[in-house]
Amino acid sequence: MSGTESVAFDTPQRERRGDNFAMWVFIASEAMLFGAIFLVFLVAHIDFGRAFAGASKHLSLPLGTFNTVLLITSSFTMALAHMLALQRRWRATVWALLATSALGVCFLVVKGIEYGKEIQEGLAPLLGLPFRYSGPDPVHAEFFFGLYFAMTSLHALHLIGGIVVITGMIALWRTANPASRLGRVVAVGLYWHFVDIIWVFMFPVLYLINR
Amino acid sequence: MSTEALRPSSYLGEGAGPAAWLLTTDHKRVAWLYLVSLTAFFFLGGAFAVLMRVELATPAGDLVSDDTYNRLFSLHGIIMVWFFLVPSIPATLGNFLLPLMIGARDLAFPRLNLASWYVFILGSAFALASVLAGGVDTGWTFYTPLSTLYANGFVSMAALGVFIVGFSTIMTGINFIVTIHTLRAPGLTWFRLPIFVWTMYATALVMVLATPVLAASLILIVLERLFGIGIFNPALGGDPLLFQHLFWFYSHPAVYIMILPGMGVVSEVLPCFSRRPLFGYKAVALSSMAIAVFGFLVWGHHMFVSGQSAYAGVLFSFLSFCVAIPSAIKVFNWSLTLRKGEITFETPMLYALFFLALFTFGGLAGLFLAALAIDVHVHDTYFVVAHFHYIMVGGMVTAYMAGLHFWWPKLTGRMYSETWGRIAATVTFLGFNLTFFPQFVLGFLGMPRRYHTYPPEFQFWHILSSAGAVVLAVGYLMPLLYLGWSLFRGARAPANPWRATGLEWQTASPPPPHNFETMPVVTRPAYAYDMKGLKHERFSPHREEAAQ
Amino acid sequence: MSELRKLTFGYLGLLALLALTVGSSLLDLAGFNVTLNLAIAAAKAILISLLFMHLTGTLPRLAVAATGLWLVILFGLTLIGR
Predict the structure, then answer these.
(1) CATH of the domain at B493
(2) Which CATH number fits domain A12-208: 1.20.58.220, 3.40.50.2300, 1.10.3720.10, 1.20.120.80?
(3) Smallest Cβ distance to C18: which of A24, A31, A68?
(4) What ipTM was estimated for this complex?
(5) I need a labelling partner for C76 at 20 to 30 A (CA). Which of A118, B29, B258, B303 fits?
(6) For A191, which residue in chain C has the nearest alpha carbon?
């Protein structure tokens, strides 16, 4: 009746304020999840810094850097989508969203290539795969790679979630009224940028530290 | 019959088929979905407890094997903590009352609210599957390396169930926080909110910020079990103590998820039945927030004997004493609310007074445990078991029963039998103390927890405790019967049977679909029982009916 | 137009910070590498949250502040306990 999605709000403006706050609270919650995982890594890094530094050198810095560029660019296109939606340029908004999710897919492909390379080199201590490592302290290097796969795949899962939501949003685009289109772009945008921020921390922590 | 026609349409009249309930987004109906599922889990978890108490009636392990016993107490803990206590008051009474108390039409995100129940059901499917497959024997704490290297139960499945239920908790938390911030009625400032709303806010804060850390630690356990990443395995470089840090970073604050809502209920009931405004309103409100924050600073007291540094032990001991301050502030303020009150002993009031006694007693026992030297003596004994059951069962479940009776007329539009209510409350109180007081003695004498056999000299206390468990079970089964009966045969409830002040009492019982016929405006503080016209009012459903 | 310019500056700034962090990791800064890398990551996070996520208004800031405080508690008390 008043153009809100939830019966609880009386105006779309108040609803948008509520949606926005809800996304930030959700991000707070997600930040605690990744915070705990980073804490596990930090504790291990304090204990076995040298072995971790050695193991870190076996990751591909060029691919990691390239992926960071991809993800930063996708955040930029997502921010553009938000700007275009505010200006009610809906066709351009959809293109920006498509570009965002395409860049996300590219990130996943590059990550897959990286995983494949590491599995071939025998650096993936998962699912009974053999672990071959020539550097010093192979036990703790193996630990590093275990954490590397755990952290990056958790991040990748979040990215996949974002891509799925964007795709679904575009699929439902025609049925949504302008207010809910804008609301959805803002919400998924906040999530996408947050996943980007996680990578912004994960990249130096895994690839760069004590290189 | 004429009252039937005059009665405004209620949320219960909006369709009765399964689809009308299972696809509802009305917070009042979602509350019922939770209420029914949580009641089932409460009695399932209770059945495990009764089996344990029967086994412990004799020193020998004659009813169940040691392995079965391990699974019994693990499943009792897992089900009671995550499938009953954590969602208990927030997801049922909180869900139902929060929008009513702040004068809103619904929670901020009604579909998210329904989704949270489905996620809860999905998680509980995993938990029940692990029960049927043979159970878990790690204890509810999933301690590593037991859970990752040695346990042969269905740990991953149970952990996954708890992980999924965590999402449902976070959804509820986000919904509550946004609702309280954005949907308060005109004039309803923060310091006019009922304390129940304050405690829901504090609870939601803990839910949102602590649950993800539990999720992280459960993910890591599953990764370690399924993929062999040695995160908590010292042989591979991992740190088993780190699991305890992550687990208790969640689980100690989760203890406050499990008690803060109970404090909220009692803060509503005590003023109503002593016809006095809540003493020290601001102190009680802010102490709820203080508990939510301080609750995050004390988790190390679970690890006094786990090999953390001595300095950390001293610090955590000190911080644990500090968290007793806001709890004590509440207890004193509740007591002073009763002072010079015109107290009557209806069922909710009985439960609330029992809460006050049991929570104070259990809380004081907590101070013993916060003291480093005493904790080393009674660590992992029945003293600890008795302490947290005084808080969780004596505190939270008692408050849950107080709230359920207090708002039952609002939930159902029916009155329950006051006589049976008072009998059940008294039986519960006696049964509870008979069950758990002997456990303090047992623990102090050195009886360790989690054993299915024990030396014969402990049998006297164990028999007392087991007998108490039977009384307690009767006390909890009685409300199931008379509340169930009242659903169909209870007298019709008036809008405000207790002459209480909250906004939820200013709409019909049961409330209409969007809660209020006209949206309320608030002009006075909460608990204005000293106002003219309310001061000497008494509970009397019959007079209300006569007036109609 | 100024919104577009703001976003573009943010984007270029992020790329510059990325170049800086990768470049610094190739040099040996005698122990300051970690600090520098994390400081740059924090700078990037601030850029993203202010320019892309429009972190304004009391309530979102409250959520971010709470997250910061709780992460400090989690990290601080865990590391003290070791």
Answers:
(1) 1.20.210.10
(2) 1.20.120.80
(3) A68
(4) 0.93
(5) B258
(6) C53
